[in-house]
Amino acid sequence: MCGIVGYTGTEAALPVVATGLKNLEYRGYDSAGVALLDDTLDVYKSEGDIDALTLPDTHSATTGLGHTRWSTHGQPTDANAHPHTDCTGEIAVVHNGIIDNYEELKAELVAAGHEFTSETDTEVVPHLLEAHYDGTNLRAAVQAVVERLTGSFALGVTAVGAAELVVTRQDSPLVLGRGETANFVASDVTAFLEYTRDVIFLEDGDIATVTADEITIWQGDDRVTREAQTVDWEADAAEKAGYEHYMLKEIHEQPQALRQTISGRVDVVNGTADLEFDLPTNYLQSLDEIQIVAAGTSYHAGLYARRLLEAHADVRCTVEVASEYEFTGGRDPWRTLVVAVTQSGETADTLSAMRTAAAAGARTLAVTNTVGSTAAREADDVVYIRAGPEIGVAATKTFAAQVTTLALLTVAIGRERNALGGDRASTLLENIRSLPGAIQQVLDDADRVADTARELADSEAFFFVGRRLGMPVSLEGALKLKEISYTHAEGFGGGELKHGSLALVTADTPVIAILTDGANPEKMVHNVKEVQSRDAPVLGVSSLDDAESVLDVTFPVPSLGDLEPLVANVYLQLFAYHIADALDRNIDKPRNLAKSVTVE
Ligand code: M6R
After folding, report:
1. pLDDT-above-70 percentage for the chain
2. Is 374 near ligand 1, meaning CB less than 6 Å away?
3. Where residue 482 sits, what CATH number does that domain have?
4. What helix, strand, coil percent values describe the chain, rounded to 5?
């Protein structure tokens, strides 16, 4: 995710803001910038490392804002880096999140004569402020602008004549720090931890005005009080927001990550999804086949998507491990769409498969988390999953965001091909929109998963079984467990276990079964009985009413149709994490593995 840091006090702002940017580096970023407010406003920003940012040695400003950007709208370039300014260069804005309605706001502002210098959604904010700011009351201007925005945002604003920072949030975190002779703002406490541990977490809709000696918080025209708290985290713990590992933090970030994935893309009323790509209707209607290429966890996301695409978009779909891919598109390769699913956008096997497809004449679409990555640049079209940076080697939130993006792609393609009626599309979209809440329910049950995982941590091996949409989740559950715990684990289609591997099932090999909608739960019950009669303990992730009567341990999954297995997967992530933790493994950097595999 992007990072925000701001300082206003009696000392020079530059060193504090520069330190704050360094502290935010761990979040991942592709560009950075600083705004310093004196009698004038000076802005410094550039693509790349913070070290590449050319800052003055000293600066007299005592108010400043800094930002690290992880691109979502527009490439990582100097112009797209934050802070963004208005036409006069006197108002500076930093932003985390996504402004859904920026295109219509931008059109309106351009028509009114505003000149834009970036491709970002953020830049509408300083231009809107320019129209509302009277040179004295910055809070009132921010209030008026926020009323025009839809989406998720944390905003930091400063302007000539204001001598303060004004910040506000909606669905994106923002915290204030209280010092003796200075106050701070940031997207997380790590940014200013060496200066103060006395913090106030803002709530949605809050607008705070921050000066050297005062913090005032407003909801509309009413002043509100938010309780101050003392944070006792050490810097390392703060980077992980108090979680022991990045993986656990990223598992818990899934509701917020999916809100970003979905933001501005879903129209439930009309049953449409807008993924901002250029695939023409006549091309989608004449498609013979979609071929998904991917590796590891991304391959499992592809397997999930295949079922959705075939069921809802009426298109033949194959999924191939990228390193095994050969193009088989027949006589008219252009009628095959090759979808490369890759979090990093740099996986050598996936890039190679994409190039094979392109050389054969197929059209390529990259589904990736990384703006400006090789996959994004080389593909004919690109869709971003917007999960924010993932630091743990084990993919967690990016799997959820990949499947969610591919579900949106299914709706978009299904509608264009007239294969998916409005009512069915609306139901699927309503389920997609409910994903963050459903995943939060699972996360609220995390302690029970931890207890069960600790009890079973010394087991000899684990088997994961699921059918249909539960099958890729069973593969993903096994991959997650083995890569971070180094314990043998295998995933199967529920019916397949009995064709050989059942010989391995004993009382010391727990079986994890997926019994949800979209995963043939009725048939799965038979598979559960098969392994129970070999004495294996069976844990189930289930949305069935009577699951307890079948399973030894049940973890309930909220009702969500074809997306239930995706929600169930969050239990499997937690299970893998707590087993690895009990075995004291190097969870964020498992042996022999790399986050991005750039060799074939
Ligand atoms: O960046 P990619 O999605 O292309 O990476 C593909 C795999 O290397 C990756 O999904 C890997 O399997 C996961 N990190 C495992 O958790």
Report:
1. 100
2. no
3. 3.40.50.10490
4. 40, 25, 40
